[in-house]
Design brief:
The complex is a heterodimer of chains A (390) and B (516). Chain A is mainly alpha-helical and 390 residues long. In chain A, 76% of the residues lie in helices and 0% in strands. Classes of the chains: A mainly alpha (390), B alpha/beta (516).
């Protein structure tokens, strides 16, 4: 019993937002008479917010280096959209090559901004504020102020396509692929946890009590299954969901298990100490922004594909959603604290609020006020609970 | 008969889970210098925070009687109004404001909220004269040395008509000259009627200036020693602090010296702020396998700059000179290279440059040697935990677990974490910059023991410290630095405190206006 209490206490801020998310979902589930969690709406929630998830992952890495943010992300999303439109619609370049080009340009943008931030040491918010103007301007220039569209089917599928049912089951039945993926993911998760426990035991490290361990595995596995079943009840797994899922896995692994990931936290915790421990902090900061450029390009592709048009006004304030997600998810504004999963939970909180209030027919005025207050309260809760802990 | 200005009675303060102070009593006579000593964590700072109102009334029990009246301070302003001033270890000055502006911060020379700048600087000058600081009051704080900043803090307190001045470790970051000046000033102010409470780890200073000494141990008042009545020498004070007599402050070691392991030849470094100014001037030194060398000198002598410029050019511009390891020239172009060449450096400032305070013990221990724990950039978690546990046990890092945040550790344990990090990189040469600064007597002894072990294992240790007794106690050989030069070398047998000071003074005299 004691260990559960301790475990809970230690991870309170991480779990707090998860619990808050569950409550917000329940709240809207009741208010919307069950519409919120209808399989179609759950699928839409993911499709609508794909760009926030992707940007929030990149933003987490930047924030970890020392509270640095990227204010240009929204403009870069629009710029990449404009380029995709030009490549695919105007120049008739094939979709695959266009995507590679768009990604390369995203990385180039990251290199450009990263250079000024990491090597010239201009504060990130100034460099990216400038970038936000520059890339918005370039977007207008390329599109000449007009909207380009529609895109060919192959490009649209990125954000609106579903993984086909490999079992070729009749329409209306649960999607087989989604179920198989769900079962496989749950099994893989359980297996990896068991392996970890065994190896910890072998090395004589403390492990959670057996019932706690089983409860934890069952809970997460059940959650994975529930999500996939829900997708299966509608059209199956969205392609973009798979992309986001892989990104979350890859970046969680990167931040928690790899050497460069650890360098991010070390730099955000104390840059001087990191330097004196042999970490090239300039390089770490530079690469965080190169990565941000790449992920902004991915988000740009995802969003343009969903909109099925390249618009000069797209991507407005996207960076703010991403930044808010990170902070709601427990990232520190000074760096060194935060997780990818936290940012995703933060993005879900924002997404559910948006979606729930839209279903209820609440205007965007009130929506913004609510979202703003939620951001403030979430961070205030974090700050106050940390003060108490001390 | 004695005129008691302040009495704190039965002060008890608890934090969640711990009792910081338990029925502590303190009585201060008017016009005396009263020293407060105790190991780190004994409760000195907590007691002073209660006195100055940082912890408001109601968060502790007991009573404070100041000038005959019972006080209930709700915030720092309340205690200031009564005439209690506190100068914290971390100075509370604003670097980009001038001396004058800092002195009158929150106490501006103003009429109707419009500042009278003429009066500000005239008055500032007056207070600077009072503390014996010859600086233009228009000078920004960042341009004067820490020693002078300390004097500005005192001037600031005097400008508020303090009756009781509390100084928390005022000489911790001062060199011997500045420390001596500060102590003289305290005696001078005492003769003018000021009462002060001095918190310090430097027992020789306390023995020199204090009229009475209150010793606190583990949140309890142990005893109060009175000048003239009790013996007030260092050994007597230490006995009270640790509750036993420390026969040997320095653990013994029989050096087993090998060949010269590391040598620096004709090392020159220029200031990064002013590339014209040479900070290190043709320094030469060497250290043998299994040897501990001490680097003595006053603050600003260039010891830290020398060490950091060697450690992968972490300091300075236009660095020239050669570094040789076992007689072979080595490149030390950046920190990574230095680490790979088997050099380790622990900073003099644990908190701002040594530790990731929000990171846990484990991360702090492994960060410089992560590559040893990883394969294709992926960290082996089990091995990492194993390494952290090993060092936690080996260096006796007192903590709840390896997941405790470094920021929540005491100074001594923080230093052990830093040492663990560098021992884990398996260095041949360790440069330890002020490794015992601000840590208590018991922890110091542990650090000395670790240094001795390292030397016994055949590593070479370069030990930088501003405390001469410590350098004398731990080093096999001592280099003396002054004004960027190595001006003397003493073997263990011939080194004395007086000899080293004389060496510094002579070189300063020869260097003429070489000092800045």
């Amino acid at each position: 019993m004691e260990s559960i209490k301790n475990l809970f206490k230690k991870n309170i801020s991480q779990y707090a937002m998860l619990i808050a998310l569950v409550f917000i979902m329940l709240f809207f589930q009741i208010l919307t008479n069950g519409i919120l969690l209808v399989p179609m709406n759950v699928t839409n929630l993911v499709l609508q917010n794909a760009y926030v998830f992707i940007l929030a992952i990149g933003m987490t890495l930047c924030i970890l280096t020392g509270g640095n943010i990227d204010l240009s992300a929204g403009s870069v999303v629009a710029f990449i959209g404009a380029l995709c439109g030009t490549f695919i619609i105007n120049l008739k370049i094939n979709t695959g090559l266009s995507l590679v080009l768009a990604l390369a340009i995203g990385i180039a943008i990251g290199v450009w901004q990263g250079f000024w931030i990491a090597y010239v040491r201009i504060p990130a918010f100034i460099v990216t504020l400038a970038g936000s103007l520059v890339f918005r301007g370039l977007t207008l220039f390329i599109l000449k102020g007009l909207t380009l569209g529609p895109f060919p089917e192959s490009f649209q599928r990125i954000s609106s396509g579903f993984v086909p049912d490999i079992l070729a089951r009749p329409k209306g039945a649960l999607n087989g692929t989604a179920l198989i993926v769900g079962i496989a993911a749950a099994a893989l998760y359980a297996l990896s946890q068991i392996r970890r426990r065994v190896s910890h035991r072998k090395s004589g490290f403390e492990t959670a009590a057996f019932p706690v361990f089983i409860a934890q595995i069952s809970f997460i596995a059940a959650a994975i299954m529930a999500i996939t079943v829900w997708f299966a009840r509608y059209k199956g797994l969205p392609i973009i969901f798979i992309i986001i899922g892989l990104l979350i896995l890859a970046y969680s692994f990167f931040t928690m298990r790899t050497v460069p990931g650890r360098y991010l936290y070390a730099m955000g915790g104390n840059e001087k100490a990191a330097q004196l421990s042999g970490i090239n902090t300039n390089k770490v900061l530079f690469l965080a922004y190169v990565n941000m450029g790449a992920l902004a390009a991915v988000a740009g592709i995802a969003f343009t594909s969903r909109l099925n048009a390249a618009s000069p006004q797209s991507g407005m304030n996207f960076e703010l959603d991403a930044i808010a997600s990170c902070f709601i998810g427990g990232a520190s504004a000074y760096g060194g604290v935060g997780t990818v999963i936290g940012a995703i939970i933060g993005a879900l909180v924002m997404g559910v609020l948006n979606n729930g209030m839209s279903i209820l027919g609440i205007g965007s005025d009130v929506q913004q006020i609510v979202k703003g207050l939620v951001l403030l309260l979430a961070v205030a809760f974090d700050v106050i609970s940390k003060k108490k802990a001390r | 008969m004695a005129d008691i200005i302040l009495e704190m009675k039965d002060i008890t303060k608890t934090f969640p889970g711990v009792t910081a102070l338990s029925r502590v009593n303190l009585a201060i006579r008017r016009g005396e210098i009263h020293a407060l000593v105790g190991e780190n964590g004994a409760g000195k700072s907590t007691l002073m925070n209660i006195l100055s109102g940082v912890y408001p009334q109601g968060t502790y029990s007991g009573s404070i009687i100041f000038e005959g009246a019972e006080c209930s301070f709700k915030e720092v302003r309340d205690s200031e109004k009564k005439g209690i001033g506190i100068i914290h270890q971390e100075l509370a000055l604003i670097p980009y404001l001038s001396i004058g502006e800092n002195i009158f911060l929150r106490n501006e020379r103003a009429k109707d909220n419009i500042i009278d700048w003429d009066r500000t600087y005239q008055d500032a000058k007056k207070y600077l004269d009072l503390v014996g600081l010859k600086e233009n009051p228009h000078t920004p704080i960042k341009d004067i040395s820490v020693g002078k900043q300390q004097l500005v803090e005192i001037a600031k307190a005097l400008s508020r008509n303090v009756k009781l001045l509390i100084l928390d470790e005022p000489t911790a970051s001062l060199n011997e000259d500045d420390s001596a000046h500060l102590l003289e000033l305290l005696l001078d102010l005492k003769s003018k009627g000021l009462t002060s409470i001095l918190i310090s780890h430097k027992l020789n200073e306390i023995a020199r200036v204090a009229d009475s000494i209150t010793i606190i141990r583990d949140g309890l008042t142990v005893e109060t020693l009175e000048k003239g009545k009790d013996s007030m020498d260092e050994d007597r004070i230490i006995k009270g602090m640790v509750g036993r007599e420390l026969i040997d402050r320095f653990p013994k070691r029989t050096p087993k010296l090998g060949d010269i392991a590391f040598e620096v030849v004709d090392w020159n470094v220029f200031s990064p702020l002013n590339p014209e100014r040479q900070i290190i001037k043709g320094a030469n030194f060497n250290v043998r396998k299994g040897e501990v060398i001490g680097l003595a000198g006053l603050m600003g002598a260039g010891r830290t700059e020398l060490a950091m410029s060697i450690f992968g050019r972490s300091y300075g511009l236009h660095i020239s000179g050669q570094a040789l390891k076992h007689g072979k020239k080595i490149e030390l172009g950046n920190v990574r290279q230095a680490i790979e060449q088997g050099i380790a450096y622990t900073t003099e400032d644990r908190k701002t440059a040594g530790l990731n305070l929000i990171g846990d013990i484990k991360e702090n221990i492994t960060i410089a040697g992560l590559k040893k724990l990883s394969k294709r950039w992926v960290i082996n978690r089990s091995r990492e935990i194993g390494v952290a546990e090993e060092y936690r046990a080996k260096l006796n890092i007192r903590s709840s677990s390896i997941l405790q945040k470094a920021g929540n550790l005491s100074g001594g344990n923080q230093q052990k974490v830093v040492l663990s990090r560098w021992i884990f990189t398996e260095p041949d040469i360790l440069i330890l910059d002020e490794p015992t600064r601000g840590i208590d007597v018991g922890a110091k002894f542990e650090i000395y023991t670790i240094i001795n072990q390292l030397a016994d294992e055949g590593k070479s240790v370069i030990f930088i410290s501003s405390e001469l007794p410590e350098i004398l106690g731990i080093s096999d050989r001592i280099y003396v630095m002054n004004d960027g030069r190595i001006v003397g070398e003493f073997s263990r047998g011939e080194a004395t405190q007086e000899g080293i000071m004389k060496c510094i003074m002579q070189s300063a005299a020869e260097g003429g206006n070489g000092k800045h």
